[in-house]
């Protein structure tokens, strides 16, 4: 009878998966993080004039093509953004179902203080046509 809890767990997981609907017909935006906090995960930050880089990915979870028309940064100049190639040319990024693109953000503090900013992702997604991603970072002296 020691297998009973194992089989019960498997049945519960299988039944939970049965209620899951498939992907939406419309394009759906998914971003792997709602915020980028540079070097703050462990209570640290970045040294003044040293650069830390983070990436986030944007994925289409809908069946129709997701079109990302822009990614704009507001806030502190210490955050710089590297966009997917089509956006740098003024074109849209087109993602089919399940495909991803990446946005890279660098943080280079110029003073020992806290910095904040925001990324705004604009798309034709039905769930979030405008998605905000918070940016924060702390500069420290050595």
Low-confidence stretches: none
Main sheet specs: 6 strands, mixed
What pattern of helices and strands is seen along the backbone? HEEEEEEHEEEE
**Relative helix content:** 10-25%
Question: Structural class, judged by helices and strands?
Answer: mainly beta
Tally of individual helices: 2
N-to-C span: 61 Å
Q: Shape from CA axes?
A: elongated
Question: What is the radius of gyration computed over CA atoms, rounded to a whole number of angstroms?
Answer: 20 Å
Task: Tell me what you see in this structure.
With 142 residues, this protein is mainly β. Helices cover 13% and strands 45% of the residues. It is built from two helices and ten strands, in the order H-E-E-E-E-E-E-H-E-E-E-E. Strand 9 and strand 10 form a beta hairpin. The termini are far apart.
Summarize the structure.
Helix content is 13%, strand content 45%.
Layout of helices and strands:
Blueprint: H1 4-18, E1 29-31, E2 35-38, E3 46-47, E4 52-60, E5 66-75, E6 79-82, H2 85-88, E7 93-95, E8 100-107, E9 114-123, E10 130-140
Parallel strand pairs: 2-10, 3-10
Antiparallel strand pairs: 1-4, 4-8, 5-7, 5-9, 6-8, 9-10
């Amino acid at each position: 009878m020691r297998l009973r809890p194992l089989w019960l767990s498997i049945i519960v997981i299988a039944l939970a998966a049965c209620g899951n609907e498939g992907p939406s017909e419309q394009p759906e935006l998914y971003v792997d993080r709602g915020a980028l906090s540079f070097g703050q995960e462990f209570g640290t930050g970045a040294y003044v004039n040293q650069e830390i880089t983070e990436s986030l990915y944007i994925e289409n979870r809908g069946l129709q093509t997701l079109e990302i028309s822009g990614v704009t940064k507001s806030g502190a100049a210490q955050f710089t953004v590297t966009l997917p190639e089509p956006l740098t040319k003024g074109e849209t990024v087109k993602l089919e179902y399940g495909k991803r693109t990446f946005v890279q953000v660098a943080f280079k503090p110029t003073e020992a203080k806290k910095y904040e900013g925001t990324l705004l992702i604009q798309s034709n997604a039905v769930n979030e046509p405008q998605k905000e991603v918070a940016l924060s970072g702390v500069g420290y002296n050595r």
